[in-house]
């Protein structure tokens, strides 16, 4: 018998990234990715894309390491939040409540099976544009400056995990996520898994961490409106000495048009465009890619670059296989 | 106190259009818009875009008139469907159950306050591509042929109504729709209203019918992945003698990049691209446009063409003032 | 018998524009159009697009008026320059030699039949990028900053003239220009004429000045690489309060994708993309558009905006017809 | 002392390709590249892109081999043609006059130093569109169908040669070509050379043939108007099982946005977009790329695929080094 889908979690809300080159990282996110600073507190700078509706979607925190601090999701209501908290506590994954942050109210923190820290909250601080950031069209969060890649909104993130199957068992119960696509190796091992809580085709993905480390980060993605904007961004990155890892090209999995770069501290950042692709089907059946299918490379034949399988942050030595 | 949002309705599923030039209309939708025929029954041809996941999204029915036959929405589950039916019956808008159609199972029919016929269902027939329509990438419903405008999926429709405020009172209760944007005239009258049941910025819009007729149709929209595809479609329509009413340009309301044409029977068809714009905020506040603001025309200053306010199908004489 | 084509003139090189709001105009050209200042002298600022190979393509001169100062063309060789000077002198249109300017060597000045001032020269100052403007790819004149509309190179200009037929008789003899397209009214009058000296489809166009004034300016155009860049520029202009006169749309004549704005002093500026369209045929036959054909509006049906026929700089009162 | 540039050759006009799979090759060029058949004679089918102004730009000839038959250039006038013939004869490269072909009048044939066969002519047969191919806009050669990649016009070709330096010495004298870019290895050897006779940045390129064979072919290129059209073509090729060798990406040399595929007989075909890039400078200085610079790969970092250096047609065994 079919159970009803869960609609308690609205969307991926923000990601905290650690950087050991805080000024260079900030310059990258503001001048080249095109984010706007909306606040500062302690060692953190709060950043947002021009059509993100909340106060911030990236919390950039100076640190002696790199990688992800925590991942925030917003619930669809106060009641939904409490349903999620109960579910997470039942999973034994809970950390506890925080008082909130510059950008939102009380949040409940928890850990995924690979020790990445998450939080979920409902009360938020919607962005109110100061006069110089007021857009010409009132249905837009903030003025469009066309600065750098001029990304529109946060899209998704990708984390590394030792046991992707454990994540696949966890997230649907914790957040109500659905698995839209996955890669299953010939050995039966789950090598990659894409999740969504809404109509986006994915808001978080996990891929296998071959190093044996825990809690590592693969990439954070912001969306632009058109594929051409990604080609323009590639030129900007080229001119500004940003390391382009791979792309622009189109993924076979999820069909996203992508460009991957490393921000100065080494965290991987993606600019992406999904076109008009959405998951509208409430009983979407997970698409499973086999090892053979994935060996074909990306959609138009680009071989997946080796570092895409090995580079995560923080950087750790590769264990022997 | 805030009530929880309703997630019972998954998405706009299909639209039935009447045509009194059935062969010419069919040729337009297949050769120029790029839809694929998935079935025929009685006076109807069932059509679909290449990434629509259901059997059909357009039911084109030969008739002695034009305009809309009915509008179908899919529920998020069987239980959700029955919650909606109960709500609709409580509103006194119900017509009753049908046995379903080529493309879906039992559906509950009802009328909006302007007498447009709707239906809602859960059991559906997902499209299974025959060998010649099997896509290269398995996460896509059907092969991409690049034929005509090669639209990707159904996006939204626009209906005319005498009393848009009555619709605004009705749809949120009937389907759980949210009002994302609206136009309120200086007189206080609601001139236009945009609704969504999911993360799309709208799946249905209503604008004032100044003729006093009921149940009329304004336009049906299919989405393409990139704005450039709309520019290419404009060239195709030009070469093939299709009447281009207005565009390509960008709407101020909802910021959609658009192109409006009339199919041979006179029904207005839009090709649109919304970029990466989504409504992710679960408590999105309706954006209200004033009469003064709307007099500025479209986003980049194009004056709204007169026929956009007057042409609907079926065509009726304009009433005196 | 066919005479041989003339290849003495290489290309449109630069345009001098007058502005009575010099700082606002400069801000527009640098921040919004994306030009770079390459020098200053007297009341003039010299500006260039990032892939213009010469020192400057726009000389912006503070003045008590608006409109065009002079138009510069570069010859294909020293010998070719002298052939052109001889031809111009034979036409009685010569003014005489100047010592050159910041951006080029000795130039020969002359007037067209409507009293616009032209110059032609061969010795030029090629742009040498200072370190901070050095591009990542050595086959590009200057670094790409992605600032504002980030136009690539000068494309063409459009002048007003009382007697377009007189221009059509003059330019082919003076510069060796070819007439690629023209508009002939039912009265037989030549209403518009497009000229080129090379493989571009046009580098200068003339349209009828209905005011009876002489030497007026219609617009100056810079090219971008893709149509999508023009759509992005439209958003930037909207956000920055720049007056958008018309577009984006596609011209029927020459098929250019266009966007017209007024810089702060009122001079009309166009951003354009011609796609891969070139005139490669050495004996191209002029395309003649009739009055009836032009009444269809632009390529996709946009009606030509009234001000396009009336606004030129400097602004003058309209004479009675 | 500077000599005057030569303007005797107007443009690359057509290429004859051999195919040993004539029907499959024809289907590829018509259905997927989007060319139109304009005639047939003997073993050859004559094909054209929708905005090519001549009768044909591709002569596809059934054969027991693959590769290039001959390359045609059009002169700028009858007198220019005879000047070129005299120059070619003086170089000792002449073959002699032909009576012409379906698409043009008498042509003078000659060989380049690597034994590729060329011809040059002036009298041509301009394409006259039959009623069903008449375009909506009269300044366009043929109707735009949007079929397949829907390429606009022939752009350039690339040939392999044992001694690229010998070609560099020959073409400027034979055709008046200019060398716009080149690759010089650390050994001093010329590994690649790009030539143009007009404002296009190149119409022919030569790269080193490491097999020691003569007269081989690397690729033929058609231009599309926008980079996005190349992304769409990649999807079409994917769906239709066409082998995509590399791309879409942007070349560092000449900055062309490219996609390379093999037509069914193995001849490499490129779809390209150069944006608004032109060589307008009459004394353009050749851009020289070093071996080190070329090791960086393409513009955005894509490594040049191995087969790009080895695959040519006809296919021959690789000689030992």
Q: How would you describe what is shown here?
A:
Four copies of one chain form a homotetramer. With 321 residues, chain A is of the alpha/beta class. Chain A has one domain (9-126, 148-310): 2,3-Dihydroxybiphenyl 1,2-Dioxygenase, domain 1 (Roll). Helices cover 17% and strands 34% of the residues of chain A. Chain A contains six helices and 17 strands. Chain A has a nine-stranded mixed sheet with strand order 14-15-16-13-9-12-11-10-17. An eight-stranded mixed sheet of chain A has the order 2-3-4-1-5-8-7-6, with helices on one face. In chain A, strand 11 (190-196) and strand 12 form a beta hairpin. The longest helix of chain A is centred in the first third of the chain and has 13 residues, at 78-90. The N and C termini of chain A lie far apart (42 Å). The relative contact order of chain A is 0.16. At the A-B interface, helix 2 of A face helix 2 of B.
């Amino acid at each position: 018998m079919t159970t009803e889908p869960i609609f308690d979690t609205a969307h991926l809300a923000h990601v905290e990234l650690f950087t050991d080159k805080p000024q260079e990282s900030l310059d990258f996110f503001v001048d080249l990715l095109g984010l706007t600073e909306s606040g500062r507190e302690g060692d953190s700078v709060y950043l947002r894309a021009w059509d993100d509706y909340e106060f911030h979607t990236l919390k950039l925190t100076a640190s002696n390491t790199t990688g992800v601090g925590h991942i925030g999701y917003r619930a669809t209501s106060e009641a939904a939040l409490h349903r999620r908290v109960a579910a997470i506590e039942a999973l034994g994954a809970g950390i506890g409540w925080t008082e909130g942050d510059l950008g939102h109210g009380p949040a409940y923190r928890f850990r995924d099976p690979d020790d990445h820290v998450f939080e979920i909250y409902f009360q938020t601080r919607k962005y109110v544009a100061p006069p110089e950031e007021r857009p010409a069209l009132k249905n837009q969060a903030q003025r469009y400056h066309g600065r750098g890649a001029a990304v529109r909104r946060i899209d998704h993130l990708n984390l590394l995990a030792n046991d992707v199957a454990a994540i696949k068992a966890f997230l649907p119960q914790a957040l109500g996520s659905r698995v839209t696509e996955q890669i299953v190796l010939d050995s039966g091992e789950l090598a990659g898994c894409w999740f969504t809580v809404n109509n986006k085709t994915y808001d978080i993905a996990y891929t296998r961490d071959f190093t044996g480390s825990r809690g590592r980060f693969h990439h954070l993605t912001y969306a632009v409106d058109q594929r051409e904007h990604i080609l323009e961004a590639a030129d900007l990155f080229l001119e500004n000495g940003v390391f382009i890892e791979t792309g622009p090209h189109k993924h076979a999995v999820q069909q996203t048009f992508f460009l991957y770069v490393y921000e100065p501290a080494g965290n991987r950042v993606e600019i992406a465009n999904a076109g008009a692709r959405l998951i509208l089907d409430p009983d979407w059946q997970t698409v499973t890619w086999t090892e053979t299918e994935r060996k074909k490379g990306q959609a138009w034949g680009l071989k997946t670059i080796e570092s895409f399988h090995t580079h995560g942050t923080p950087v750790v030595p590769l264990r022997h296989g």
